[in-house]
Design brief:
- By secondary structure, the protein is α/β, with parallel strands linked by helices.
- It has two domains: 110 residues, NAD(P)-binding Rossmann-like Domain (Rossmann fold, 3-Layer(aba) Sandwich); 153 residues, Succinyl-CoA synthetase domains (Rossmann fold, 3-Layer(aba) Sandwich).
- Helix content is 34%, strand content 22%.
- The protein is built from nine helices and 14 strands.
- The strands form two sheets. It has a seven-stranded mixed sheet, with helices on both faces.
- The longest helix has 14 residues.
- It is globular.
- The protein starts with 10 loop residues before the first strand and ends with a helix.
C-alpha cells in the first residue's frame, strides 16, 4: 500500500506536448514512473516521447485505463483541465499550474466534489513515492525510500526536508506537496490523514507557512485522533511583515491564527514537535524515533 501514487499508477500528462509538459514528463519517465500517455487537444493519434497522445482525458481513460493525471496546462485553461479529468474518471489529479484565478478554483473545487477523485494542488510540486512514482516536478534523486511522510505547502522546503531526512539515516514513504494557493484540492489535514492511515509511514513532517488555517486544522485533527504517529512541524514566514503576500498567493496573514507564531503555538499545544528552523527537521525526527 502507498499513498496516492505507486508503481502501478497509470499516469497521463495533460498538456503533454507543451514545453513544461514535455520536460517534466521526460524526467518522470526517466525516474521509472508509469507514464502511459498524454493529452493535447488536436494532436490525438500522434506519439510523443514514445507514448500515445489523446485528444481528451476520456479517450485516455477508455483506451489505456488512465487513473492518475498530472496537469501542465496554462492558468487560463487549467481549471477546465481539472474538471475534465474528474469527469473522465481520473482518481488522482495533480495540478502543477501556478496562477489559476481564485474564482476559477472556487467553481472547480465545488464541481469536482461530486466525483470520486483527489485533487493535489494547484501550484504544487506534486507527489512522490520514492522508487515507485514521481508525479511532479521535484528532483527525484533527493528522495530515498523510507518510512517518513512529508506534507508541505512549499516545494523547495519539501526537497530540503527530504534531503535532511535521508541524511539523518531515514527515508521517505511519500511526499505530498499540497500547493500554496488560497484554494487547493487537498488541505494539510487531509494529506496528514492519508499518511496517518498509511502502514508504511512511521512519522510525519508537516511544513506550513503564514496565511490560512490549514495547519491549525491539521494540528487539532492530530490531537483529536490521539497523536498516533510523531509529527515534526515547521512554519515558514516567521519574520514576514504583516499584511504582505509572501511568494505564495495563500501566504497572507488575514486572521489572528494566520501568523507563524500563532500556528506554531497551536501545533505545540497539539503535541507536534515544532522546530524554529528548517535546518532542524531531520535531526529532530531522528531523535524522536530513537526515543
Amino acid at each position: 500500500m502507498s499513498v496516492l501514487v505507486n508503481k502501478n499508477s497509470k499516469i497521463i500528462v495533460q498538456g503533454f506536448t507543451g514545453k513544461e509538459g514535455t520536460f517534466h514528463a521526460e524526467q518522470m519517465i526517466d525516474y521509472g514512473t508509469n507514464v502511459i500517455g498524454g493529452v493535447t487537444p488536436g494532436k490525438g493519434g500522434t506519439e510523443h516521447l514514445g507514448k500515445p497522445v489523446f485528444n481528451s482525458v476520456k479517450e485516455a481513460v477508455i483506451k489505456v485505463g488512465a487513473d492518475t493525471s498530472i496537469i501542465f496546462v496554462p492558468p487560463g485553461f487549467a481549471a477546465d483541465a481539472i474538471m475534465e479529468a474528474a469527469e473522465a474518471g481520473i482518481k488522482v489529479i495533480i495540478c502543477i499550474t501556478e496562477g489559476i484565478p481564485v474564482q476559477d478554483m472556487v467553481i472547480t473545487k465545488a464541481y469536482i466534489e461530486k466525483y470520486d477523485c483527489t485533487l493535489i494542488g494547484p501550484n504544487c510540486p506534486g507527489v512522490i513515492t520514492p522508487d515507485e512514482a514521481k508525479v511532479g516536478i521535484m528532483p527525484g534523486f533527493v528522495f530515498k525510500k523510507g518510512r517518513i511522510g512529508v506534507v508541505s505547502k512549499s516545494g523547495t522546503l519539501t526537497y530540503e526536508a527530504a534531503d535532511q531526512i535521508v541524511k539523518a539515516g531515514m527515508g521517505i514513504s511519500t511526499a505530498i506537496g499540497i500547493g500554496g494557493d488560497p484554494i487547493i484540492g487537498t488541505p494539510t489535514k487531509d494529506a496528514v490523514k492519508l499518511l496517518m492511515e498509511d502502514p508504511e509511514t512511521d512519522g510525519i513532517v508537516m511544513i506550513g507557512e503564514i496565511g490560512g488555517n490549514y495547519e491549525a486544522q491539521a494540528a487539532r485533527y492530530i490531537k483529536e485522533t490521539g497523536n498516533k504517529k510523531p509529527v515534526v512541524g515547521f512554519i515558514a514566514g516567521q519574520t514576514a511583515p504583516k499584511g504582505r503576500t509572501m511568494g505564495h498567493a495563500g501566504a497572507i496573514v488575514g486572521g489572528h491564527e494566520d501568523t507563524a507564531e500563532a500556528k506554531m503555538k497551536i501545533m505545540a499545544e497539539c503535541g507536534i514537535h515544532v522546530v524554529h528552523s528548517p535546518a532542524d527537521i531531520g535531526t529532530t525526527m531522528a531523535k524522536i524515533l530513537k526515543g
